[in-house]
Each structure stands twice: as structure tokens, then as C-alpha cells.
Design a protein that fits this description.
The protein is an alpha/beta fold and 382 residues long. The chain is 45% helix and 13% strand. The protein has 19 helices and twelve strands. Helix 10 (185-194) links the parallel strand 5 and strand 6. It is elongated.
């Protein structure tokens, strides 16, 4: 047997999680030695239950692991141990890294930035729209988008990033061959082609509540930053944030109404120091990537249009778009000019609450009527 086969067997043993696996490896040094261990040795290891010992000694489980390992190639599944060259370098440095990873499709590229987008399963239309939007635009900027393929924010972020140059990657809280929830089977299939599916759990492992918190450390571990879009006060997404903070990742959050229970988690994160995000540029800035819009003294966008030009020039250019704007969108548009205006100033001028204003600003950016420059400053698009 190859070394990878011994680790595959060890990884597949029921009731033996990553911490017990690490304890066994500390004692025996190699998975091969555990495979051939004697009962009298195993019962002396602190923390191993009688059932754990029985699982390690089971000839039936060894035969099953051998058969399952042989099925991987037929199913198009790659198995990587943490000693493999292809194993993600970022994961090697987290607490309790997976001993093995199952992959369908590709892994995120080490030389490209990766952002995790996470949030509520039962998200609002607001959350749905913006998770799709941020997934799409980040992907178009070449940033890899990673999430958990769960219902809600996760799924919409994956959908947005599909077929972009960044690609999208899903980390499962179940076996690599199990699509959970089942309604995402089409998305799962597309992601094999346009990104990748990743799990530390092998064939046939069903989705159980206890598996999801552990998979969150992989989502955060593979990312350079974590964007939270809608999260309740005790949301599971905050577990990912906690892992991210331990791992030294940047945390971003989109604000919501203070009366919305689905936004309490995000608003609290912002109060505690998470980066308030109202546009993709906020994230690009933190990642030290080139922003789309740079400005000189003579021109706001380098096109030769002076700061003194009136809004009528832009209005004529956006006349068709302007006619299609909703009333409040027109109000916000009319308050902007070629001179940058800060978000707080727009709030004071419009008397709109932050969540509604951010939604309008993002809609206006999608419609190419305005753009953001720097940190929370907006101008008309010329």
C-alpha cells in the first residue's frame, strides 16, 4: 500500500476525528504504523475509547477503505494528504489542518487572492442580490471566491463567481460525493468544471450538524479575507469569522438595518473592527490590488475631464440610464457630481438610512451611473 492509502484509511475511521488522528500520529509517527498497531499498544493511548480501538483493528473497515480508495479515480476524485506537494500551503499553517483532502475539479491557486463570502442560509433579497454581485465582480477581478455551498448566501456567491476568471470553490461539511443541500446539485456540477469542490470527508459521509463548524476552518484557512453578508447574532458564519481571526485573516462585513435580526451579526462585527464594505473597491484596497479608478489632479479618472465640468455633461452621457432610474436612485444621482462625496455626507443629504443608501449606491454602480473612488467616496461615472 502507498502512504496515501494508509492515511486514507486512518481518515475514514468512524469516531476518530482530526485531533485523535494527530494524537495517534504523534505516537506512531506514520499512518502505516497505526495500521499494523497491536491492541495492547492502542489501549494505552490516552483519549482512545474502546470503540476507537475496535475501529483501528477492524479488518472489515480496512477492506472497505481499500475498496473506497480504488473508487476515487473512477469517480474523478483526487485525494491529497497534508504531506503531498499539491496540498494547499495556507492550510498547513492553521490549527488542526486536515490530514487529507478530497477534491473534485481544482484547488484554489496559491498565487491568486481568495475571498470567502459567507452568511445566512435564510437570506433576504438584499443578501441574495449582493452576494451574487460581490461574487461576480470579485471573480471578474481575478479573485477566487470560496464558500460552503450551503443554501442562501453561500450558493448565491458561488453563482455570481461561476465562469469568471477567478473561479469559485466550495468546501463541504459532508462527503465529497454528497451534494448538500440536494437542490444545489446543478451548482455542484458546474463548480467541478469552473472551480472545485473540497472536503476532508470521504465517500458516503452524510451531512451532520457537528461536521459544519469543523469545515469552516478550511474555508477561512484557504482565504485571504472573509466577507460576511447577513448574519444573525449567533450565526454559524461567526464561527468562520472566529477561525479567520485566529488565522490572521482580514474580516469584512456589509452593514444592514439595525432593526433587522439578520444583520445584527454583521453590524456587531463592524463595531468590533471589521472593515465596513459598501463596494468591491473596499476589499481590493485592503488586498493591495489595483483599483479600477485612479485619479489625478487634472482629471477625476485620467480621461481629461476636469473637475469643473458640470453634471450636464454626464447627464447627457447617461440619459438613457437616468430615465430608467427609480425615484430614490435619481435623488442620490442628482446629489453627486464629479467631486468625490463621502458616504456619511450622502446620508446627511438624502436622509436615507445606511442599508437603503448602500443598496441604491450599488444599484447605481451596476447601472454604470456612478462609481466609488478611494474609501467610501462616490462620483458620477463619466
Amino acid at each position: 500500500m502507498l502512504d496515501a492509502e494508509y492515511i486514507f484509511w486512518l481518515n475514514s475511521l468512524p469516531g476518530i476525528g482530526i485531533r485523535k488522528i494527530n494524537k495517534l500520529l504523534d505516537y506512531y509517527k506514520e499512518a502505516r504504523n497505526i495500521y499494523y498497531a497491536k491492541e495492547e499498544e492502542l489501549i494505552l493511548i490516552h483519549g482512545l475509547s474502546k470503540k476507537n480501538v475496535e475501529s483501528i483493528l477492524s479488518k472489515q473497515l480496512k477492506e472497505k477503505a481499500k475498496n473506497d480508495y480504488d473508487k476515487l479515480n473512477k469517480k474523478g476524485i483526487l485525494f491529497l494528504t497534508k504531506y503531498s506537494e499539491e496540498y494547499p500551503e495556507k492550510l498547513k499553517h492553521i490549527y488542526d489542518p486536515p490530514i487529507g483532502l478530497f477534491v473534485r475539479g481544482k484547488l484554489p491557486k496559491a498565487d491568486k487572492k481568495t475571498i470567502a463570502i459567507i452568511g445566512a442560509r435564510n437570506c433576504s433579497n438584499y443578501g441574495m442580490e449582493f452576494s451574487k454581485y460581490f461574487g461576480k465582480v470579485l471573480g471578474e477581478k481575478g479573485i477566487q471566491v470560496i464558500s460552503g455551498l450551503a443554501r442562501g448566501i453561500d450558493s448565491y456567491a458561488h453563482m455570481g463567481a461561476l465562469k469568471t476568471i477567478g473561479g469559485t470553490f466550495g468546501v463541504l461539511g459532508c462527503g465529497i460525493d454528497i451534494c448538500y443541500p440536494r437542490e444545489n446539485i446543478e451548482l455542484y456540477t458546474y463548480m467541478e468544471k469552473w472551480g472545485g469542490i473540497i472536503s476532508e470527508y470521504g465517500l458516503g459521509i452524510q451531512a451532520l450538524p457537528g461536521l459544519f463548524p469543523m469545515r469552516n476552518r478550511i474555508i477561512s484557512g484557504l482565504s485571504d479575507g472573509i466577507l460576511v453578508i447577513e448574519a444573525k447574532e449567533k450565526s454559524g458564519s461567526l464561527i468562520t469569522v472566529d477561525y479567520g481571526l485566529e488565522q490572521g485573516k482580514d474580516i469584512y462585513a456589509i452593514p444592514g438595518k439595525i432593526t433587522d435580526t439578520s444583520s445584527i451579526g454583521c453590524n456587531n462585527l463592524i463595531k468590533m473592527g471589521a472593515k465596513l464594505v459598501t463596494s468591491v473597491e473596499d476589499i481590493l484596497e485592503e488586498l493591495n490590488l489595483n483599483m479600477a479608478d485612479k485619479f489625478s489632479d487634472k482629471s477625476l479618472d485620467g480621461s481629461g475631464v476636469s473637475k469643473e465640468e458640470s453634471n450636464s455633461h454626464i447627464f447627457l452621457k447617461n440619459k438613457k440610464n437616468y430615465k430608467k432610474l427609480e425615484t430614490k436612485e435619481k435623488m442620490v444621482y442628482d446629489m453627486l457630481s464629479l467631486n468625490p462625496k463621502h458616504l456619511e455626507e450622502i446620508i446627511l443629504d438624502t436622509k436615507l438610512d445606511m442599508k437603503e443608501l448602500i443598496e441604491i449606491l450599488i444599484h447605481l454602480q451596476i447601472k454604470d451611473c456612478i462609481k466609488q473612488i478611494g474609501n467610501n467616496y462616490y462620483v458620477l461615472n463619466v
